[in-house]
Each structure stands twice: as C-alpha cells, then as structure tokens.
Write a structure and sequence with these properties.
The complex is a heterodimer.
Chain A lengths: L14 H5 L3 H29 L6 H22 L3 H21 L14 E3 L2 E3 L1 H22 L6 H20 L4 H17 L4 H21 L1 H15 L6 H13 L24 H33 L4 H25 L18 H25 L9
Antiparallel strand pairs in A: 1-2
Helix pairs in contact in A: 2-3, 2-11, 3-13, 4-5, 5-6, 5-7, 5-12, 5-13, 6-7, 7-12, 10-11, 11-12, 12-13
Chain B lengths: L3 H32 L1 H12 E6 L6 E2 L5 E6 L2 E6 L7 H11 L4 H9 L4 E8 H9 L5 E5 L2 E3 L7 H4 L11 H5 L1 H5 L3 E7 L5 E4 L11 E4 L3 H14 L7 E8 L4 E8 L12 H4 L2 H4 L10 H10 L7 E3 L4 E4 L2 E4 L6 E3 H6 L3 H9 L3 H10 L28 H5 L9 H12 L3 E3 L4 E5 L5 E3 L4 E4 L3 H16 L14 E11 L4 E15 L6 E8 L7 H4 L1 H14 L24 H8 L1 E2 L19 E3 L8 H10 L3 E5 L1 E8 L5 E3 L3 E7 L2
Parallel strand pairs in B: 2-10, 26-29
Antiparallel strand pairs in B: 1-8, 2-3, 3-7, 4-5, 4-6, 8-9, 10-18, 11-12, 11-23, 13-16, 14-15, 17-20, 18-19, 21-22, 22-23, 24-26, 25-28, 27-29
Helix pairs in contact in B: 3-4, 9-20, 12-14, 12-18
The chains are: A mainly alpha, B alpha+beta.
Chain lengths: 393, 665
C-alpha cells in the first residue's frame, strides 16, 4: 500500500497543520483586534468630535492606522526566527533601559505629571512597553540557558543577574512614575522566575522584602495613597468608589444582561475620562451587556490558553520562556485592566490588550503575538522532524 | 526535583489562578450587571438626564416695513483654548491676532497661562473654519448666538443693544426685553458630564422663540434724517444733536437720530451718554419753541387775535427782578409777528395776560411735565414749576421756554398736537409685536387729549408758516412745500453756578409739512454749537435739507386733499417781497391718492409718469388730474389752463412740479 503525502487532503487537515503556525491563535488575536476596533469606534466618536472639531472618526482612523502598523509588526515577527531575539536580547534590554532614562528628561505634554512618553514625529511611544518586552526576552534567554545547560552556568549568578536586571527595569518604570506598569513588569518577571524552577522560599523572601518598602512608598506618595484608600472604600461598597471607577461601574451596571446597544453608551459622554483607552471594557459591558463582556473575557481566556499551548510546545527552552513570558504579560495586563474597570483593583492606567485605542501597547502586543506565531511554526517543524517539544515530562 | 514535573505543577497553578481570576470577574459582572442593575441604572439616569431651562432665540427688531434692525445669528462661537503642546507661542499668537482682533500680547498671555481660557467670544463661522484648518487641536468652539445689528448705526439709540449674556441694555432691546427674550421653557435633555445637552428628549415646541418687535421707525426716512443731520453739522463743533420725526396723525416716531451716534455692534467703544436715548431720557430748557403755548392760549381764549398789537419795548423789558431782552429790538408787533420774529418780550407780555394757573394748565395740557410713556426705559417727565413756586419773572420767562425743563420728545409731540388739528397723541415707537404663536399684538395709536380747538390749531399753523416764510425760520424754507415751523435758541443752564451760560446755547428748529395737511413733524436740536448758534442758522438748514431730500425720495408721502384750499395770507410785511408770498401761497404739493392706511407708507411704486394735456381744462380739474398722476404743480392766474410746462406727453419723475398758467387776473 502506498500512502501518498497528498492523500490527506488539504481540506481535511487541522488548521494548524495546513498553515504551518497556530491558526487558532492568529484567528483569536484578529477577532479580538476587530472587536477592539469596533469598540474604539463607538467609544471614541464623542471625544473625537470634540478633540478634532467635528470629526467623529478621527480617533478611529488613527486607531486603524496603528492597528495596521501593529499587524505589519506581527507579520514581520512571525517570519523572523525568534532565536534572533535571544541573540539581541541583551542589547535590546540595554537600548530599552536607555530610552527609559531618556524619557525622564524629555519634555512631556502640558498637564502631564509623569514622564512616560517619547514623541517621534507625531506618534507617542511608551518606552516602558518596550522595556517590558526586552526584559521578557532577556529573562527567557538566561533561564533557557540555565535549563538547557545546567552545568555550564552558575545558578546563583544567573538568578542574581536576572534579578538585578528585573529590579533595574522596575525601578526606572517606577520613578517615571508609572506604578501599574512597574507592577506589571515586576509581576511578569516574578512569574517567569517561578517557571524557571527557582525554589519558592527565596522568591517568597525577596518578594516579601520588596513589598514592604513598596507599600511604604505607595502609602506615602499622595496620589497613590488617595487611590488606594478610594479603592479600599469602593471594593466592598461600589457606590463609594473613586469618581472614575464609579463612572465605570455605572456604565457596567447600566448595561445589564443584554447591554444598552452599540453606540448608546452614556458614559462615553465625558463621564469616563478616556473611554476608548483604559476604560474601554466598561463601554463593552455597558453597550453589549453581561453577555458581551463574558464573551470578550472568554475570547481572552481562549487566546491565553492557545498562547500557553504554543509556549509548552516550543522546540526549545528559549521558545518556552519567551512564549510563557508573553502569555503572562498579556494575562497580567488583562487582569489589571479588567480588575480596575470592575473596581477590584486600585485605579491605574493600563490599556486592555488588543481592544484599547492603539499606541505602543497595541504595537508591542501584536509584535509579541507574531513571536508566538513564529514559535508555533518552529515547534510544528520540530515535531514534523520527530523532535519533542521542550518541557515534555 | 527540578524537573519538568515541578514545572508542570507550577504551570497548572498559574492557569488555575488565571481561571480563578476570571471567575471572580464573572462573579463581579453578575453582581454589578444583574444584581445591582437597577441601582446603577438609576445612577446613570440621574447624571445623564437633566431638565434644562432653555432660553429661546431672541426675537428680531424691525422697522415698520420689516427691514431688520436687530437679528440673532445662530452661527457664532466662543473660542476656548486648553493648554497644548504648542512650541511657538509667539507665532501662534501672531496668527491668532490676524484672525481675532485682539492684541498679540494679550493672546500670548492667554496661550501660556496654565488653565483653560476663552480667547474670543462671538466669532463667526469663517473665523472658526480658519482656526480649525490650523489643525492644532487645542481650540474649543462653543456655540453662542450673536446679536447683530445689520444697519449698524441706524436709530442706534432707539434700537439699543443686548449684553453678552443676551439681555437688553439700552433702547428697545432693554424696554422690550421680555417680549424679545420670549418665555424660557423646560426641556428634558440627555447631557454629558459637562452638563451640556447632547440631545433633547422632550420635543421643543415651535412657539418657544422670542417675539419679533416691529417699530414705527421707517428705515428709509431714518437714513435720510441721519444723513442730513450728519451732513448739515459737518465741520461744526457741538456737544450733541438730535432729530426726531413724527407722524402727527398717529404719533408714530418714524425717525429718531442722535449725534454722535455709535456702532451697535461695538457698543463698548462708545461712552454711555451717547448710547442712551437722550432725546427721551435727558431734559433741556427748550427756549423759543415753547412760545406756541402762550400764543395758543391767547388765540384760544379769544382775548387776543393774531392781529392784536403788542408793544415790544424796543428790545428791553424789565419784569420783577429781571430784564428780558430781544435779539432784535422791536416796537409794536402783532401776535403773529411776535411768534414769527420770536420776540421774547412779546411772548412774555402775552403770557402775562393770563393767570399763572391758566399758563400752567396749558403747558401741562401740551404734555410738558408728564412722561409720554414712549417705550424707552428711563424717560424723564421734565419739570413745569407749579404756580405756587413761581418767583418774580417766572411767568414771563416761561413764555419763551426758560425755567421749564422738558425732553426733546415732548417738544416734538407738542408741535405734533398743533399739526394734528389740536389733538395730542401718545408717541408710538412700537408698531406691533409678533409672537411666535402667530398672534400679532398691534400697539394702537393713542389719543391723549384735545389741547386746542381745531380752529386755533389751524390758525397757529398759519402763523408758523409765516415764521418760516418771513420770520426767523426763513432758512428752513423749501420751494414747493409749505412749512410751518419755529426756531429756538435757548441759553443753557449752568447747573454748577445756578445761572445761565453767557455763551452756550441749545439751538433748535421744529416744524411740520406740508402745512395744509401735515404729514411729518421734525425737530432738529443741536446742543451747545460753537460759532453760529442761532436755531435759524444751525438747526433750520438741517430741517430744510431733510425736507428737500424727502421731496425727492418720497413724493407720494405728501398726500394733499383733493382740492387744495386757498390759505389765507398773513398781511404781515414780507422781508422777501410780495412776489414770494404769492408764490408760496399757491404752491401745493399733491399726490395721487390718500392711502387708506397711511401709517404704513410704502416706497413709491411708479417712479415715472406722463404729463397730461391740460390746455383748455378748468384749473380745478387740471389740478385733480395732476394729483392723480403723482405730480406737483404751481399755479398762476385762474379759471382755465392757458399754458402748461412741461408739455403734454413728457415723461417725468413722479412728484415733478408742473407749471400751470391760467387767465391772468
């Protein structure tokens, strides 16, 4: 009996085998981007009308442009061997660190209290986003080396180096100040440490030691303090939440089961400060109701599960840690954003990945999805060649 | 130990934590969206629905023919600026200064100030468009209706202006503010966080608009009066001047001009004394124009006739505690000549023939000392001293308008009473108010009282014609129309020192025309003219210029009775010769027909007419035919037309004077 390679018809093959990379991941990411574009349109129209003097589509058009740019980044990253990232990880991190230092001395828009943005020809860019990605790449590179070649590298030295690098990145983001982003950086790196196989005890000790001064700083910095107390008031008694969180909850609550209909949000009429950015989830829940919000969260869970699967099936340690780091970063952003919108976390300004109005966050997220796609593609090649994915027990 | 199994366990733990978090989120969504849905919805409604009290668009002010005097433009904007990332403030300030007429420095200060600032108010949509093309994104445009005055300076003190907040500050804008503003109404709106209405929920009824106010002002006549006042006083120095024109039959104010005038669209540039309607709100001592009161009293009483002779003391007449002077010394004058030549002594002597209360009552009957209730806020009644407070010379000086204060409006209304056959009318400034509901409230002409018997009014009119034809008012004479009028030159009161200025005067001329069927009464008053100061020299020429312009522009306004009456001539000596007298007595201005509603005078519709062939016609019929064709005429001779000019068949402008020669007597 002869089995022709072509006899397993293309139409019958599972999606991933046919296209060579994880098609579900790509599809989920694109679906989320489409949902995002739709909600950016409905939530930004009023603000756009005012900011751009009667042009209600201006913000949406900007978003589409940035989304396009992000998809280009994703495509490029999907075709560039992710191992190159490992090679340039150290340089990338140094460059990110340099921009983080530079941003502290660059002029910021009037009224801004923090140094967070770099303006390049009309496009604003948050170096902290790049630094987070660079840190993930660097940690992945170091932990992979440790895992695959445990006898060449001194465990202590690697962990100490990784720890210092994480702490430096965290510190520079923290003094911008951008507390939530700093927490995300620290959280992502802590979870990567966890997955690197480090023993729990030292991690817990260091975590505990760090959280005490952090708590003190947070308590003594007036804006952080007020947000924390408002949060504490609001979590149990939502009506006493801070203004923005309360407005977010009013929108969500008004949405009910089915929502009040696309475009009908009342909260986008300046009750929420930037409804197309950090509080877009509130608009989703208001306009499409409990069902819409739940569907969106489900979409995210599916995407994360798929990304997780890609990491697990990575052909090598670097792929595994890189994929895991990206997945964790997206998951943490999601949790922080939705948590804030629902009044379950202190108010901070974190965009919802894929959904919020584009900027450096959307671009980096899509580029990271490109990296995941590249990993999935290489793992399928490895399996096709009979290799086992990294991390197989 | 460090193997993949522990890794798997940690992976699973992380996945479980994520799922647990999602479960918490879902639970929170259930709590907020399902359980507490009603509570949050109520909060949303409370903050996004608002019952707003809306002020409707302000009504228009129009002249009697509907020409706009004040309108509200919807497309005006306030320009706000919120601090932005603008690198070159100097350059932007320069660009803005070119668009918004404000100093560059002031704009630059506003640009660099930390908070939100309004750069300009009430800019038009073109400016908005220009600023938007700068694409800076730091400007905010708030709609704000702008009150604007298309005929910027016309009847400025009458129309008045509205404040930035939309309430009237002067003139009709202030006095008719309630009608113009209209009733506010409640409207349920959806609002944004800035309490700005996004969309009305309750429908806006159409009748919520301000009412439109139609004035009795005739913009065409107003323009003539304004232009001639300005022209006539060009090059002269004076404090202020006014001209008021009234239709005596209805009391309609058809024109009211003041100098210096001001631009209603920029009221802030003018001082307040030029913005108020001072012919109504300020009092003056009127001077010789008041002499008609004692003369009217004299004629009415029958104790004197127009031919009664009065000795005028050759120019100097001591009365108790004062000496009255005439500008020219006169010996014996008839009552008619006292008026025509404006003898103070003669007037004082006429006055002294009556008891104080008789004079006082007559003054009050003419409307002095009472507000006329014209629709202008802040009207002054003036002061007529009651007889009990009269000092020695008061009765004598009142005769020529000293020791009494009145508004220019009262003077013109008193002459209107004479022109109207002795019936005093209430001055009417508002013709009608059109409410948005469709109802029209017409303000009726109101008769106040009969001041004089018609016979006396007619006699007084003839005496005033004499004043223009051979008396002090000669400089107001116009070929082709008989004018009745009186000059006045009053010494101004020095309030500080409680005496009269030796060198400051109030010059005026008030008259009406055509004398046989008065259509318009016009007062021209010049306050404190420098150089020539006699009413005859300053005010009367303006009067003449206005009448001449009228004859050219509105010939049909001068509707004469079908058969012109031969007016009795004064037998007084004529400085300009007998020929002139005859000529003037036989010149009549005629018009095709008396309009049924003459208070609304349309612009002449037929401008050119053909001269008919009249040779051989009886004069009376010939005159009627000319009247029918809107032609004026000059008659010589009597009975039958022998000769005519222009010849029959000539096409001439309406109102042209045709010469008809009858059989020589």
């Amino acid at each position: 009996m002869m089995t022709l390679p072509s006899s397993t018809g293309a139409g019958m093959m599972p999606l991933e085998k046919r296209v060579g990379y994880d098609g579900w991941l790509l599809a989920l990411a694109l679906i989320l981007c489409l949902c995002g574009a739709m909600f950016v349109l409905t939530s930004s129209a009023v603000h756009s009308w005012r900011l751009y003097h009667g042009d209600s589509m201006a913000i949406f058009r900007n978003h589409l442009g940035r989304l396009g740019l992000g998809l280009v980044c994703m495509t490029i990253m999907a075709f560039v061997d992710y191992h190159h990232l490992g090679r340039i990880a150290r340089g990338l991190w140094v460059a990110a660190l340099a921009t983080l230092i530079a941003v502290l001395f660059l002029p910021q828009p009037p009224g801004a209290t923090a140094h967070r943005w770099i303006y390049l020809g009309g496009i604003s860019f948050q170096p902290a986003e790049l630094a987070k990605f660079a840190l993930i790449a660097y940690l992945a590179m170091r932990f992979a080396a440790l895992r695959e070649d445990p006898f060449t590298f001194d465990r202590r030295k690697v962990y100490r180096g990784a720890f210092i690098v994480s702490l430096l990145t965290f510190g520079l983001v923290f003094i911008e100040p951008n507390l939530s982003m700093a927490v995300l950086v620290l959280g992502t790196s802590a979870l990567l440490f966890l997955l690197s196989g480090v023993r729990l005890k030292p991690l817990a000790i260091i975590g505990g030691a760090l959280s005490v001064p952090l708590a003190c700083v947070a308590w003594l910095t007036p804006y952080m303090h007020s947000r924390l107390t408002a949060f504490a008031n609001g979590i149990l008694e939502p009506a006493r939440a801070s203004y923005h969180v309360k407005q977010s909850l009013i929108g969500i609550g008004q949405g009910g089961l089915m929502g009040i209909g696309l475009g009908n949000s009342t909260q986008k009429h300046f009750f929420l400060p930037e409804p197309y950015k950090d509080f877009i989830f509130s608009i989703v829940a208001e306009e499409s109701g409990f069902i819409g919000a739940l569907l969106l969260l489900t979409g995210f869970v599916l995407l994360l599960a798929r990304a997780w699967r890609v990491a697990q099936r990575a052909p090598d340690g670097f792929g595994y840690y890189l994929g895991a780091g990206i997945t964790l970063a997206i998951a943490l952003s999601l949790v922080v954003n939705v948590g804030v919108t629902l009044g379950l976390l202190p108010a901070t300004g974190q965009p919802l990945p894929f959904i919020s109005y584009g900027g450096s966050s959307l671009m980096i997220t899509l580029a990271a999805v490109g990296v995941l796609l590249n990993i999935s593609r290489q793992s399928q090649q490895t399996r096709a060649e009979g290799g086992l994915p990294f991390g197989t027990p | 130990m460090n193997g993949p199994h522990r890794l798997r366990a940690r992976e699973r733990a992380l996945a479980a934590m994520l799922l647990a978090t999602m479960a918490i989120f879902a639970a929170r969504l259930v709590q907020i969206q399902i359980v507490q849905h009603a509570q949050w919805s109520a909060m949303a409604r409370a903050q996004s629905l608002l019952t707003k009290f809306q002020q409707p668009a302000r009504g228009e002010i129009r002249d009697r023919s509907g020409r706009p005097l004040a309108v509200t433009l919807p497309l005006a904007y306030a320009v706000g600026y919120r601090p932005a990332f603008v690198l070159d403030f100097d350059k932007l300030a320069g660009t803005l200064a070119a668009q918004i007429s404000k100093p560059r420095r002031e704009l630059r200060d506003k640009l660099t100030s930390p908070g939100f600032a309004y750069l300009a108010r009430r800019v038009d949509w073109q400016t908005k468009l220009t600023l938007e093309t700068l694409r800076l994104g730091c400007f905010q445009f708030d709609e704000e209706p702008r009150r604007t005055y298309p005929s910027t300076g016309s009847a400025a003190v009458v129309v008045g202006f509205a404040n930035v907040d939309g309430s009237g500050a002067e003139g009709i804008e202030a006095s008719m503010n309630d009608e113009l503003s209209g009733e506010g109404y409640r409207e349920l709106c959806r609002v944004d966080a800035l309490r700005k209405a996004i969309a009305p929920i309750s429908p806006v009824p159409a009748e919520y608009r301000g009412a439109n106010v139609t004035l009795t002002i005739d913009l065409q006549l107003q323009t003539i009066v304004e232009d001639e006042l300005r022209e006539g006083l060009k090059g002269k120095t004076f404090e202020r001047a006014c001209a008021i024109m009234v239709d005596p039959r209805s009391g309609d104010i058809v024109a009211l001009a003041t100098l210096p005038s001001y631009d209603l669209n920029a009221p802030g540039d003018a001082p307040s004394q030029h913005r108020r309607c001072w012919p109504v709100t300020d009092v003056v001592e009127p001077g010789s124009t008041l002499k008609i009161v004692p003369v009217a009293k004299a004629l009415e009483s029958g104790r004197l006739t127009r031919d009664t002779r009065i000795f005028c003391e050759n120019g100097s007449y001591p009365v108790r505690g004062a000496v009255i002077h005439d500008s020219h010394a006169h010996g014996s004058l008839t009552v008619e000549e006292v008026l025509a030549l404006s003898s103070n002594i003669g007037a004082a002597k006429i006055c002294q023939r009556f008891s104080p209360s008789e004079i006082y009552d007559k003054l009050r009957a003419f409307g002095f000392g009472n507000v006329t209730q014209i629709e202008i806020a802040g009207e002054q009644p003036g002061v007529v001293p009651s007889p009990s407070s009269w000092s020695g010379p008061t009765q004598a000086t009142l005769a020529f308008g000293q020791g009494i204060s009145c508004t220019p409006l009262q003077v013109v209304m008193a002459y209107s009473a004479v022109a109207n056959g002795g019936v005093l009318m209430k001055p009417r400034l508002v013709h009608a108010v059109d409410f948005p509901s469709g109802t029209r409230h017409v303000y009726p002409s109101e008769t106040i009282r009969r001041v004089l018997p018609e016979r006396v009014a007619r006699e007084l009119t003839e005496m005033l014609v004499g004043a223009v034809e051979y008396g002090t008012g000669k400089s107001a004479r116009v070929d082709g129309v008989r004018i009745a009028g009186k000059t006045g030159t009053a010494e101004k009161v020095d309030r500080e020192h409680k005496r009269y200025f030796a060198d400051r005067y109030l010059s005026s001329f008030v008259g009406f025309f055509p004398a046989e069927n008065p259509r318009y009464v016009l007062l021209v008053m010049v306050d404190d003219p420098q150089g020539e100061y006699y009413g005859a020299a300053v005010a009367a020429p303006v009067f003449r210029a206005v009448v001449e312009e009228f004859l050219l522009t509105r010939p049909r306004d001068f509707a004469a009775p079908a058969a012109p009456r031969q007016m009795a001539l004064s037998n007084a000596p004529s400085p300009s010769g007998t020929d002139d007298l005859i000529r003037y007595s036989t010149v009549y201005l005629a018009s095709a027909h008396v309009e049924a509603n003459s208070s609304l005078s349309p612009v002449t519709d037929s401008l050119w007419v053909q001269v008919p062939a009249l040779q051989g016609w009886p004069l009376r019929q010939a005159v009627q035919e000319l009247s029918r064709r809107s032609l004026s005429f000059v008659l010589t001779g009597s009975r039958v037309v022998v000769e005519q000019f222009p010849p029959a068949g000539t096409v001439v402008p309406a109102g042209t004077t045709c010469e008809l020669r009858g059989i020589a007597d």
